[in-house]
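#help-structures
NK: newbie question, is this the right format to request a structure? protein is Aminotransferase
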Amino acid sequence: MAFLSDTLARVKPSPTIAMSNKAAELKAEGRDIIALSAGEPDFDTPQNIKDAAVAAIAAGKTKYTAVDGIPELKAAVCAKFKRDNGLDYTPAQVSVGTGGKQILYNALMATLNPGDEVIIPAPYWVSYPDMVLLAGGTPVPVECGIENSFKMTAKQLEAAITPKTKWLIFNSPSNPTGAGYSHEELKELTDVLVRHPHVWVMTDDMYELLAYDDFTFCTPAEVEPALYDRTLTINGVSKAYAMTGWRIGYAAGPAPLIAGMRKVQSQSTSNPCSISQWAAVEALNGPQDYIPENNVMFTRRRNLVAGMLNEIDGIECPTPEGAFYVYPSIAGLIGKTSAGGTVIDNDEAFATALLEEKGVAVVFGAAFGLSPNFRVSYATSDEELVDACTRIQEFCAGLA
């Protein structure tokens, strides 16, 4: 009898974390490494949020809380959804977890049975399919290629739905591509979903506030109110508020689903960190003026990276609408050999050789379900980005 669960054989560790760890190991050995693999802003958490955390500690707010969030944070979440998305929720419809990842996991664990299918547009965040597998469901990836700006079409969604479909996981702006769906594009998808009442929508809006140029964010239940009763709208404070380490995510949806998620959380982690919750209250209720200021820097960085990568023969890098990633194609480089002797027969070989030969860590596209591509996080300084992109240019110039 095997000791470890058979379920573990169905999933793999996060490739993004693995690449970040590999870069950290090489850096610890003294190598000159630039890591563009982690999805984490380089900005510090705003001072008002840190002050709120210190005040919570001083006030002794260090005990257990309600399993899925303090009333003050649930009220702030309800206010945020009303203010930003025109969505009305009560605290009984809100769940707060240890990061957006736990919210997603809780929802899947609370709803999936063997044989249930979950549609996931690819490229996707690396954890979506593995969480579905852990929960006993079947991920159904749908490839959304560069020709459609990495976005799912209504025709693709319609074709993927079966009687076994339980969820569509939707992410805009996207990790890993930064692609954002316009109101018109999203309405075409919601029109399909309206015709299939057994399909629920799990929308990951983590990058909502990181939107650039003239792109306007919208979310499914906002675009199509008929989906309100079967939509779980997920968000968090990690990206726009530079609070990745604080680990607070939240969601709102139908009360019975939220109750099921609360039951899962009560038997796993119980409540999120009390201090982080009070910091998140300040993040949602406090000043928001630094977000557009940060977005100006992100826009500049996006343009810098996309511009330098598009100068490379064999690479095509679309300019995304949001988040802080680009997802270039290396279709024109497949089959070439690096200066160090590595045959670039896929995007994993490209990323591995780039790290070993030039000290730049990126994440290969196969991890996100669509190749041949790689993901660059431009959430770092302009200087590092110029250095990294110059190294990528040099690496590609050395291919033969």
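mod (FA): yep, format's fine, and the tokens are attached above. The CA atoms of residues 69 and 376 lie 34 Å apart.
NK: thank you!
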